[in-house]
């Protein structure tokens, strides 16, 4: 069945039977199941990657449906990793899909060591720099990708080459989809470039650590050389993001959404309390009420108009 399923790929001289076999033996971790992650994961599982590890902390929202291919209207409010796993397993039941509905941080990132390759499909630079520090320290290959407005970037980051910190000195140097918007055709294109580079790396092909830029509206593409910075702390074996104490409050790339991380809660007790004040939605690892979703690892996602409003909601529904 495998030969029949992958016959068009096997016919390609770039892949062939040996390449198909290699891909089925590989494990790829995809961090972030937004516009880039959903496309990249679907492309890879259709190409026969043997093992996909999906990591995301978020839930499906209506605004996601314009560009996040794996989600449908009936998935609204669900954990992204669970909804994505269901779709991907139906696409290719021969591939193993494992999931982690967590907020990736310096305390729990070590499980990524089991992956042959990491795809960064996240939506904030704090997490990207955490991935950068970890991969640089552990000598793991990974691929950075980002899309905003009508353009995007892809950068394969190899242990011996320049890293993300060589590209971005300041972690606040990028716009977000909330402030600038994004067209779904560029996220499709950037994810496709990222997935193609992933296949090449997994097959042992030589990949240049160059920054790829593509503007789909202007039909412009450039490839730019990137050099190591002498003052790059990551390249000089200093990994500040692996020593971080974590983030108490984080604003998402989305409409008025915040994450507050605190101590783990007794989910049964929380459900009992919340049932007294309103309608709750319960899933395997989460509990939701009104504009708030509590996860069993202590994270809380809150829809709020401001940081102060988010903190007030946390105090009302979690601490009280």
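^ Assign residues to that structure.
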């Amino acid at each position: 069945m495998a030969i029949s399923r992958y016959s068009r790929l096997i016919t390609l001289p770039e892949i062939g039977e040996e390449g198909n076999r290699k891909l089925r033996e590989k494990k790829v971790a995809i961090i972030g199941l937004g516009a880039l992650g959903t496309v990249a994961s679907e492309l890879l599982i259709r190409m026969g990657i043997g093992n996909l590890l999906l990591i995301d902390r978020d839930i499906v929202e209506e605004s996601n449906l314009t560009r996040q291919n794996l989600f449908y209207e009936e998935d609204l409010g669900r954990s992204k990793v669970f909804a994505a796993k269901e779709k991907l397993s139906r696409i290719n039941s021969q591939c193993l899909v494992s999931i982690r509905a967590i907020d990736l941080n310096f305390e729990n990132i070590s499980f990524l060591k089991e992956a042959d390759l990491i795809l960064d499909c996240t939506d904030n630079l704090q997490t990207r720099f955490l991935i950068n520090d970890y991969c640089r320290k552990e000598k793991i290959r990974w691929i950075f990708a980002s899309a905003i407005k009508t353009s995007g970037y892809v950068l394969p980051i190899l242990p011996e080459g320049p890293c993300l910190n060589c590209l971005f000195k300041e972690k606040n140097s990028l716009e977000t989809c909330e402030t600038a918007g994004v067209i779904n055709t560029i996220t499709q294109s950037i994810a496709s470039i990222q997935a193609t580079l992933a296949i090449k790396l997994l097959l042992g092909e030589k990949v240049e650590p160059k920054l790829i830029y593509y503007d789909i509206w202007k039909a412009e593409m450039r490839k730019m050389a990137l050099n190591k910075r002498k003052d790059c702390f990551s390249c000089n074996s200093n990994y500040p993001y692996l020593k971080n104490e974590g983030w108490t409050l984080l604003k998402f790339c989305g409409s008025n959404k915040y994450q507050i991380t605190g101590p783990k809660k007794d989910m049964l007790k929380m459900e009992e309390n919340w049932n007294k004040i309103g309608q709750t939605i319960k899933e395997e690892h989460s509990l939701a009420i009104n504009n708030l979703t509590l996860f069993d690892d202590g994270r809380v996602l809150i829809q709020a108009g401001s940081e102060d409003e988010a903190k007030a909601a946390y105090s009302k529904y979690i601490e009280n």
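The chain has two domains: 2-241, 256-319.
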